[in-house]
Amino acid sequence: MTRQRLLALVLVGVSVLAVASVALVILPGLRHPVRLFFPGEFEPPPPPDLGKCTHLEVYYRIYSYDASWPRSLFSSEERDYLRSLETIVVDDANAIEALAHEVMLAEYLGIHPKPFRAAEFERVTGYCGSKETTSFVIWGRDMRTEDGYAYAFRDRRFASILQKLRPEVEPFRRRKYCALGLQSLWGHFRAVMGH
């Protein structure tokens, strides 16, 4: 093999690696990346199916209830109480059906293989009997499955259904958002006053 041919093969290999690297960075953010290579042959994966689940386990990760918040916002007893409500089991067929309906309405966004990181989120795990059938994470209006598929809810109905499953938390949630509002107002006031 001549030196020129070997150099050409190395250049082709490097080019392929460069294109693949760029694709890994850019493609996850595209709505339907597979369509770039197979136009017309891609059917987005359906959202997780909760319809056949006998019960759900919902874990709420609420960062703002932990020790990083000022001690005056929540007492230690209130923090302990809120931690006791972090995981709930939903076995009411009507509640499961309502959640399943909202999940099926979620719109496919694409593949996001990077690990999920967020301060506040909910993890929903569906079971049929004792067997886990599906699991996904929700933060705000976004949902991501274990496989990295990302979906978005068009409205806040799913979040409101989840909130209704834990009515005991609502007074604490309101207090948190009131504190955030006051903190924002204080920041604006200080900026206006020049401090």
Description:
This protein is an alpha+beta fold. The chain folds into two domains: 3-36; 55-190, no CATH class. 39% of the residues lie in helices and 22% in strands. The protein has helices spanning 3-26, 76-84, 93-104, 157-164, 170-193, and strands at residues 55-62, 87-90, 107-111, 120-128, 131-139, 142-145, 149-152. It has a seven-stranded antiparallel sheet, covered by helices on one side. Strand 5 (131-139) and strand 6 (142-145) form a beta hairpin. Helix 3 (93-104) packs antiparallel against helix 4 (157-164). The chain is flat and about 75 Å long. It starts with a helix and ends with a helix. The mean pLDDT is 78.
| Strands side by side in the biggest sheet | 2-1-4-5-6-7-3
Counted beta strands: 7
Summed up, the domain count is: 2
What structural category do the secondary elements indicate? Answer: alpha+beta
Shape: flat
Q: Please tally the helical runs, counting DSSP H or I stretches of 4 or more residues.
A: 5
Distance between the termini: 73 Å
**Order of helix and strand elements from N to C terminus:** HEHEHEEEEEHH
Helix content: 25-40%
What percent of residues are in strands? 15-25%
Q: How would you sum up the major sheet? A: 7 strands, antiparallel
Q: Write down the overall mean pLDDT.
A: 78
- The low-confidence runs, each spanning 5 or more residues with pLDDT under 50, are none
Q: What radius of gyration results from the CA coordinates? A: 23 Å
Keywords, please?
7-stranded antiparallel sheet, 2 domains, 195 residues, 22% strand, single chain, alpha+beta
